[in-house]
Amino acid sequence: MKKLLFFIIISGAxxxxxxxxxxxxxRAGSGxxxxxxxxxxxxxxxxxxxxxxxxxxxxxxxxxxxxxxRVAVSKTASRLPETVQIAVAPSARFQPLDESTILEQxxxxxxxxxxxxxxLVKTTGKYPFHRIEETLVRNEGSDTxxxxxxxxxxxxxxxxxxQDGKTESDLKSMLAxxxxxxxxxxxxxxHYIVALKAPTLDAAPEAVSVLGAERELFAYVExxxxxxxxxxxxxxxxxxxxxxxxxKINATSAWDMTTGSTNVIVAVIDTGISLxxxxxxxNIWKNVAELNGTAGVDDDxxxxxxxxxxxxxxxxxxxxxxxxxxxxxxxxxxxxVGNNSVxxxxxxxxxRLMALKAGDSDxxxxxxxxxxxxxxxxxxxxxxxSASYGGSGSSDTARDAISYANGKGxxxxxxxxxxxxxxxxxxxxxxxxxxxxxxxxxxSDQSDLLASFSNYGKTSVDLAAPGVSIYSTVPGDSYExxxxxxxxxxxxxxxxxxxxSAKPGLTHLQLKQALLNTVDPVSSLAAKTVSGGRLNVKKMxxxxxxDGDGMPDGxxxxxxFGRLRPVALDPSDASDAxxxxxxxxxxx
Length: 588
Prior knowledge:
Elements: H1 2-28, E1 33-35, H2 52-55, E2 64-66, E3 85-86, E4 102-111, E5 114-122, E6 129-138, E7 144-162, H3 168-178, E8 181-185, E9 191-195, H4 203-212, E10 218-229, H5 244-248, H6 251-254, E11 260-270, H7 288-291, E12 310-312, H8 326-335, E13 350-357, E14 364-366, H9 367-379, E15 384-387, E16 389-390, H10 396-407, E17 411-415, E18 438-444, E19 463-466, E20 470-474, E21 478-482, H11 485-502, H12 508-517, E22 520-521, E23 533-534, H13 537-542, E24 556-558, E25 564-566, H14 574-578
Parallel strand pairs: 3-7, 11-13, 11-15, 12-13, 15-17, 17-18, 18-19
Antiparallel strand pairs: 1-2, 4-5, 5-6, 6-7, 7-9, 7-10, 8-9, 10-14, 10-16, 20-21, 22-23, 24-25
């Protein structure tokens, strides 16, 4: 009996010691843990701000057990007592957020003078919950900070790309183990949006970490980064009433050779286009198959029903009308109708403008929408895409879409950004993707100087074009001046359309080379862009050499036998003189 009692006591002691030891190991991260795709809703987020499904969901986190020698991925974020004072200046690149929109924040020191601030905010629009990551830098001699960098993403979902050979069934089966689901498939093959259970501060980065470890299923998992249109505020006193940008790029002389062609389609991925604007309506692209088809039927089989003028990817409907004005302004610079005695004129008078609305009324664009717009453009005949938007987030989904467009022979012309930064060291996307079909555009002013707000890059920004006080079309049958690399980009897109109208046999990469090889060299841009210059449309058109004889087409005429023959320059013509520096009567 004594032996039995002794055995029981010893066994109990060992069991107790084992339990305490196991708990210690768990706290130390040495035992089995559970990775979670989502965190439970923190107290700092009122249930009323979450979707109904989230409000009624049980608090218990659905998790997938794995073994790893570290602490659990799951975190619970809450408001920390630490705050920072942000210096507010009208000229600052990043303005402080409206405090009333902030639901959660976390501030983490990086170094003595730098901090990282993570925020969960609720705004309006298609995806109202955003995660924002800011880099804060202390101002010298002060306790205030300046926002030096900002990355924004959707907080309620992530983007995934399946490995080759994997199916949607495989995806749904795996996601069920985590308690999350597919929101929808993208038009890019193998790409999906995965909806998370709650839009918390850490939901998106944890999902990227946890799901990204499922390498057998996923090629990549990433946030759905948010971009913004690249316009900066414009002061009315700057308005001159002149289309100085068209004069500066010598478009008037180019129009002596061509004014465009309705066979060329330029896709404008933006906030939409005012479809009834009198200076744009006759140049709007029409999907003839749908226009002449049956209402409610996908007559051309492209996956979009009744897409007669393009598509609204924000609201997922057939009406890509502009509710912001940015897209209409860009469209006018590309292709406002010429010689119609109305308003303004675009670089390319005759063109087809495909309206692809990926930006909402606030000028916010999600990668999931822009990527689908790129795919739509490439699949529906566009040969040039004008993309006046961007942000700091690098996305494989966006890169895949632009690469797809490259394979379809589409030139992708993108704004370099308005942060006044060197894109060589601080990339801006999509303009910084190292893909052969991307043309990155900086903004220049009336004096051929780099605009004060414009990003630049000796190896990453290709050329400059006018982007200060640019007058163009806006909704309401009206006109306004705006500025930004957003305004420079459509000058280049219009120029590419004009050249393609004159030389329809050129490939998209030949178009790119023509744009870069015929700039006006500008000393202020020499170390700021790849080409070292500003767009010149006349040179781009005139210096093409169709017959390969070494003499540009602009200085040849067609004889009675249909052959190109040289024509002498007129030394009394200032424009001719500019192209004949050695005075031999022939173009340089």
